[in-house]
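Fig. S4 source data, part A: sequence.
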Amino acid sequence: MSAQVAGGSGRSNKPHILIIMTDQQRADCLSCAGHPQLRTPHLDRIAREGTRFAQAVTVAPLCMPARISFATALYPHDHGVWGNAGSLAESDATLFQALQREGYSTALVGKAHYYEQHRGMDLREREAYMRERGFEHVHEVPGPFGSGLTKSYLSDEWQRKGVWDEVREDLASRAAAGDWVVRPSPLAVDDHLDSYVGRRAVEFLDAYRDERPMCLFVGFPGPHEPWDAPGSYATMYAPEETPPPIPVPPFNGKLSSRVRRKAAFEAFSAQQLALIPQIRANYYGKISLIDEHVGRLLAALERRGMLDGSIVVFLADHGEMLGDHGRIRKGTFHESGVRIPLLMRWPGRIEAGAVSDALVESIDILPTLLEAAGVPPAARCAGRSLWPLLQSHGSGELREAQLSEVEHHRENQTMLRTRRHKLALDGVSRTFMLYDLERDPLEQHNLAGDPDASDLESRLRQLLRSRIERSSLPAARAISATRAG
């Protein structure tokens, strides 16, 4: 699987690896995925010269569990982090530790979010922890709201430029107003958080002179809220031309009262509903800003003669509701929140222009990259290598059903998604979401609790129990059987 490639000042039989992860980007927010308004030419290039996985899902629609799962190829029921609290355990091996042992130089630039971050924290105090998790070079930044509450290399730069106080005041006023402030960032485009990450990542690539193969993880904090696209990116897309959100599902009178409470979403007020097109347009602007920096990363690899000898992976940690079903932000198992973009490029090794409909998960990246580097994954690996799909123009199947898990309102919740159906359970195993995705792709008709769907529900619950049992690994902090019914 390896190929001889240029690497810094020497040569290696292993590919370089560039992993680009955005925060809270939906699967449909790529122009190559058919978005009618958004333009992402550089991400489209990765898809055109590689493979796009059109049915990829995150194994957790929330930042920390999603990112820890990506790094370890474990589900939340194995690594134990279901919400944005706790940290990546020392006992759980990471992709980056495995690559280090195989002779890779590993680097982090941007957001990782492998540990809980608090007001007043200086992220540089956790560099030793991040090195232990497998990163030789650490240039970590917080998420958008955290950038006003914590210190880092980024806050130092903002202080030097005299904009630190203005940034904190802006973010504090947005946080006080909830999720309903849409206005340009007070920062210039080049000073914006995502621009900072893109610039530092390019600087790392330009300066790379190591003879070892490289794995660089670039974590863009956007397009996560606040809705603060900077400069021209704030007006790049017309709100009146944004696609309308998926409507709030109609009332299903067959559901029990408890299930109804779980399934129902509070409708937006008229004022909030009027802001959804502006939120969407601003969100698209943030994606276009990131896309521009993706182009600069590809250009930096090209300048160094490293691009075609590199595996480029692009994905998001989870999706964003953007008003669909009466929701914004994340944490739900609707398609908008759980499906993510996933692109991979490696000329000569990965089929170009392929689109795969296989049921893949975010934890499949780890075994895929380790196979490319000639490294077997650890025994505690729940992901599956994508190489059979990558070398067959995306055709074939990887699994019967996808799994996703998250903590919400102090309950552990679980989703099972087959090619046709989706079942979601709350923490005490009461069904509240069941959809026929083939007949109802917009998830408008919840079949949970419907007597006519009882046999289907029973089969999916059994499949979910089996799926969790098969994926639970030795020494895991596994969820109890009652959570699966």
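Fig. S4 source data, part B ends here. The chain has a mean pLDDT of 88.
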